[in-house]
From TrEMBL:
It comes from Streptomyces pristinaespiralis. Gene3D superfamilies: 3.40.47.10. It is an enzyme of class 2 (transferase). Its EC number is 2.3.3.10. It holds the Pfam family HMG_CoA_synt_C. One of its GO terms (molecular function) is acyltransferase activity, transferring groups other than amino-acyl groups. The keyword Isomerase does not apply. One of its GO terms (biological process) is acetyl-CoA metabolic process. InterPro entries: HMG_CoA_synt_C_dom (IPR013746), HMG_CoA_synth_N (IPR013528), Thiolase-like (IPR016039). SUPFAM superfamilies: Thiolase-like. This is 3-hydroxy-3-methylglutaryl-ACP synthase. The gene is c106_04c.
Length: 415
C-alpha cells in the first residue's frame, strides 16, 4: 500500500457578506436566556437573496484556483461538492462550480450528500485515489457548501445556523494539513436525528441529534484506538478539532471523551478544553454551523488563532459527524508553514467586512432566502441592496451572484 504524503494544500472560507448578532436573534425569538451562554455564539452569517450553494462554493474556491499555475489548475481532475442544499435531483452543484471556476474538461466531478460528514468522506476518498499514484501530480478540489435559512420553527438551532462554504485543495504537497494514512476510526448507522425532506423544510430532533453525535464520537474514537494501538486521548494529540454545530456541543463532547478515555478532575478537563480545543471554535462563534464545512472552519480557526510555533507540526485528533448518521475520528498533522499559507486567505479580515443586519432586516429577507432552493420556472432576484453588501469586499475581487432563474435554469453573474 502506498503511503504517499497526501493532504490539504490550501484552504479558503467564504461565509457570505451579511451577519446578525446571535444575542439579538435569541432575544427577538423569546428563547430562554439561561440557555444562551451554552451556545457559545456571538454572531452568525446570513444568506442573502442572491446567494445559493453554487455562489458559496465558487466564491470559496476561486481564490485557490486563481493562485495556481496553468499546469496545476489543469491537474485538478477530481471536483466534489458536498451539500445538503442541492438544487436539482439529477444535476449536481459541481457542474455549475466546474464551469464558473474554469476548470479543465479533463475532470471527474460529482456531488456527495451525507449531512455534515460529506466533505470529510469525500476528502478521504480523494486522498485514497491520489495516494494510489495512478496519475502523478493530480489534485482534487473538495468544497463543502450550504445555505441554511432556518426560521423560528428551528428554535435554538436558528441562532447557531451558519451559511457559506469551505474549499479544500488536496494533493501531494500539503501546505495546510497532512493526513495520517491508516489513522482513522469509523462509526455509522441509520438514525432520523435530522433530515431535509423538502428544500425549505428541515426535520430536527435536537435531543436525538446530540445523543447520536456523542455516541458516534465515543465509538469512532474507540475504533481509532483499535487501528492505532497505543493512542492516548490526553497525550497523543496536541489539539483536537471537531465538527462544530455550536461551541457548547463541542465542549460537552470533549468532556465526555476525557471522562471515558482520560479521566481527570473537572478543573483539569476544563483547562485541557481551553488549551487544545477552544482555539478551533473562534471562527464558529461568529459564522455558525457550516454543516460539512464546520470541521474545516474549525481547522482554519485553530491555525489562525495559534502561533506558528504552537500549531505547525502539531498532531491533531479530528472528529467529523453527519446526521443520519456517519462519523469518523482521524489523525492528521499541521504542515510546516501552514499559518502563512492560510494567512493568504485573509479569513478574519473578510469576516469582519460582513454587514450586520437588524432583526427587522433579517426577518424581511428570510422568507425570500428560504424559497431560493425551491424549484421555480422563473425567478427574479432583487439586487437593489447588492452593492451595499458587496462594496466592502471589492479589494478581494468580484463575487459570483445568482442573477435569476429562467425556464428552471439558474443564471449567475460576476459582480
Amino acid at each position: 500500500m502506498s503511503t504517499a504524503r497526501i493532504g490539504v494544500e490550501a484552504l479558503n472560507v467564504h461565509a457570505g457578506v451579511a451577519k446578525i448578532s446571535a444575542r439579538a436573534l435569541f432575544d427577538a425569538r423569546g428563547l430562554d436566556p439561561d440557555r444562551f451562554d451554552n451556545l457559545m455564539m456571538d454572531e452568525r452569517s446570513v444568506q442573502l437573496p442572491w446567494e445559493d450553494p453554487v455562489t458559496g462554493a465558487v466564491n470559496a474556491a476561486k481564490p485557490l484556483v486563481d493562485a495556481l499555475s496553468d499546469d496545476d489548475r489543469d491537474s485538478i481532475e477530481l471536483l466534489v461538492t458536498s451539500s445538503e442544499s442541492g438544487l436539482d435531483y439529477s444535476k449536481s452543484l459541481a457542474s455549475h462550480v466546474h464551469r464558473h471556476l474554469g476548470l479543465s474538461r479533463q475532470c471527474r466531478y460529482m456531488e456527495v450528500k451525507q449531512a455534515c460528514y460529506g466533505a470529510t468522506g469525500a476528502l478521504q476518498l480523494a486522498a485514497g485515489y491520489l495516494r494510489s499514484g495512478l496519475r502523478p501530480g493530480a489534485k482534487a478540489l473538495i468544497i463543502a457548501t450550504d445555505v441554511n435559512p432556518m426560521d423560528e420553527y428551528a428554535k435554538y438551532a436558528e441562532p447557531t445556523t451558519g451559511h457559506g462554504a469551505v474549499a479544500l485543495l488536496v494533493g501531494d504537497s500539503p501546505g495546510i494539513l497532512a493526513l495520517t494514512p491508516g489513522a482513522y476510526g469509523l462509526n455509522s448507522f441509520e438514525v432520523m436525528d435530522t433530515a431535509r425532506p423538502a428544500p425549505d423544510y428541515d426535520l430536527y430532533n435536537p435531543d436525538l441529534s446530540l445523543l447520536a453525535y456523542l455516541e458516534c464520537l465515543s465509538d469512532s474514537f474507540r475504533a481509532y484506538t483499535a487501528n492505532v494501538p497505543g493512542t492516548d486521548f490526553a497525550d497523543s494529540f496536541d489539539h483536537v478539532v471537531m465538527h462544530t454545530p455550536f461551541g457548547g456541543m463541542v465542549r460537552a463532547a470533549h468532556r465526555k471523551l476525557m471522562r471515558e478515555f482520560a479521566p481527570r478532575a473537572p478543573k483539569a478537563i476544563a483547562e485541557d478544553f481551553e488549551r487544545r480545543v477552544a482555539p478551533s471554535l473562534r471562527y464558529g462563534r461568529v459564522v455558525g454551523n457550516l454543516c460539512s464545512g464546520a470541521i474545516w472552519l474549525a481547522l482554519a480557526s485553530l491555525i489562525d488563532h495559534q502561533s506558528a510555533e504552537r500549531v505547525e507540526g502539531a498532531r491533531l485528533g479530528m472528529y467529523s459527524y453527519g446526521s443520519g448518521c456517519a462519523s469518523e475520528f482521524f489523525g492528521a498533522t499541521v504542515a510546516p508553514g501552514a499559518k502563512a499559507t492560510l494567512g493568504k486567505a485573509r479569513i478574519a479580515e473578510r469576516l469582519a467586512l460582513r454587514r450586520e443586519l437588524t432583526f427587522a432586516e433579517y426577518e424581511q429577507m428570510l422568507p425570500v432566502t428560504r424559497r431560493i432552493l425551491v424549484p421555480k420556472a422563473h425567478r427574479d432576484v432583487d439586487d437593489s441592496l447588492q452593492e451595499t453588501f458587496l462594496a466592502p469586499f471589492r479589494d478581494h475581487g468580484k463575487q459570483l451572484v445568482l442573477a435569476g432563474v429562467e425556464n428552471y435554469i439558474r443564471r449567475y453573474e460576476w459582480r
